[in-house]
Structures are given as structure tokens and as C-alpha cells.
Amino acid sequence: MDVTRMLRRYAAPRPFVVPAADGTGARLAVEADMRARGWRRAASPGETGLLVVCGNPGPELERAIGTVWRSMPAPRRRVSSLDEVTGDAGPAEPPDLGEVGMADRGDDRDGLRLDVLHVPLGPVLPDWPAGVRLDVALQGDVVQEAHVTVLESAPGYWRDGRARRLDAVARLLRVAGWDAAAERAAVLRDAAPAEEDAAFCRRVARSRTLRWMTRGVGVRDGRDVHDRLSGWLDEIAGGEGAADGEPVEVLPELVAGEELGRARLIVASVDVDG
């Protein structure tokens, strides 16, 4: 890669993508368009001025999007597809949504008196289930308790079980930090079934680092994050249809007592998107 191409790649827009509950199809189209343009996604709204909202957000999700919009640097644009990127800037400033809550005190699991910080995870977060908010109480970086709220829902999008599982694998791998494998999963998701499916699944299954990160994390019914991922890979490699997704109500039970970083992996390992 010459210097000019490298500079163009890093100077290209980096969209921050927010899917609504009914926006899965639009999100897939945006991701395909980003690959065609050679663009990379933004990991946080603070590093980009391009907000892509996929689907039709309801009032509560729209308020959360307003908070994200306010944190983005100018000049900024809000669009629903990348075809609109050459248009005008996004809407006017949203109204002030209030102050951020401060920490209070509470007993942790060891009986110590520590600060308790109440933090909402989602609904606007990279690689997060659409329309879901997980309110957690943190002491240090450990989740003491959590409550889940479904802000909005929509009829299930997926008709192809293989594509659905590859989408879930891509999400989990991005959260785990393996971007190259996540991108490969997304490419396979958008293509017809092929021999490459099994080779990809073997490669991911052999990763010792991924196994180390996910073993013993988010255990439910004897299955941890690694077991759930392995099940998805087996379904993809075997050409099987995807089993039903997990109910979103299991998330508080799974994340309680886990570090915040592990909680993100746990949420990504529960395929609640239908």
C-alpha cells in the first residue's frame, strides 16, 4: 500500500452506526457499503462526525440518539444511508436531556463500603442488541446488579439461520477485539454458503486467545460464552438452521458479578436479535 492510499484510508469517514429494532436490513446494507468504500466503523461517537441511524427509532431510542449526537464533533451529519453522505449537515441540536447521575455508596460482595455507580449500557453502543438497555450498578469495574429494558422491538428479520449466526459471530468477535475475523464473518454472512464457511469456523474455534477470554464467563445452564460461540460455529459449519435466540431477560443474571469488559462479551454471546 503506497502512502497516498494509506492516507486516504485513514482520512476516510468513519460512520458511527446505530440500528433501530426494525433496522437490521438497513444496517447490513450500510455495512456492505462501508466495505465497498473501504471505510472503517467508528468505535465511539466522539471520533466521528457521521451518524448513521438504520431503521425507524422510537421515542426512547431517539432520545438516546440525541445524547450521542450532542457528543459528536462538528461538522457532523446524521443520515440513514451512506448515499446521503454528500448532503447537508444533520439536524439541529437536540434539547438538553439532563445531568449525569453521581455515584452513591453501597456494600460490595466482600462487605466493603464502596462507591456505586449506576450506568446504562445501550441502547446506543457499538455491537449492541438493537433497542435494548441494560442498567448496571458498578462497584469498581464489577457489575453488582443489572436490570434490562426493551425500549422497542420489531418482527424478526432473519430468515436465513446461517446468516443470522454469522452476524452474531461477527458481533462477538468485534467486541473481543478480533476485527479481521469479524469482518470475514460479515463477508461470509452476505455471501452464499460455501466451503469457506467451515474453514472460517475452524480458524475461530482454534484461537487460544479467544478461548482464554471466554472460558468460564457468563455461565448459564453449564454453558459459557465460549460454549455459545462454539455452538454457533457448529451450526454454520454444518449448514444447520439457527436455533431460537436467548430471551433478553437472561442478561441480568449472566452479567451480575462480572467485570464490565466481560459483561460486554456476555451480551454479545446472547443472540437476542431475531
Task: Give the spatial strand order of the biggest sheet.
Answer: 4-5-6-7
Low-confidence stretches: 87-100
What's the mean pLDDT score? 87
- Counted up, domains total 3
Rg on CA atoms, Å: 19 Å
Shape type: globular
Q: Write down how many β-strands occur, each being a DSSP E stretch of 2 or more residues.
A: 7
Instruction: Give the H and E element order.
Output: HEHEHEEEEEHHHHHHH
Q: What is the structural class?
A: alpha/beta
Strand percentage, roughly?
15-25%
Largest sheet properties = 4 strands, antiparallel
> How far apart lie the N and C ends?
40 Å
- The total count of helices amounts to 10
Chain oligomer state:
single chain
Amount of helix = 25-40%
What does this protein look like?
The protein is an alpha/beta fold and 274 residues long. The chain has three domains: 3-84, Rossmann fold, CATH 3.40.50; 104-150, no CATH class; 161-269, no CATH class. The chain is 40% helix and 15% strand. The protein has ten helices and seven strands. It has a four-stranded antiparallel β-sheet. A three-stranded parallel β-sheet has the order 1-2-3. α4 (161-176) runs antiparallel to α5 (179-189), α4 runs antiparallel to α10 and α5 (179-189) runs antiparallel to α6 (196-205). The radius of gyration is 19 Å and the shape is globular. Residues 87-100 have low confidence and may be disordered.
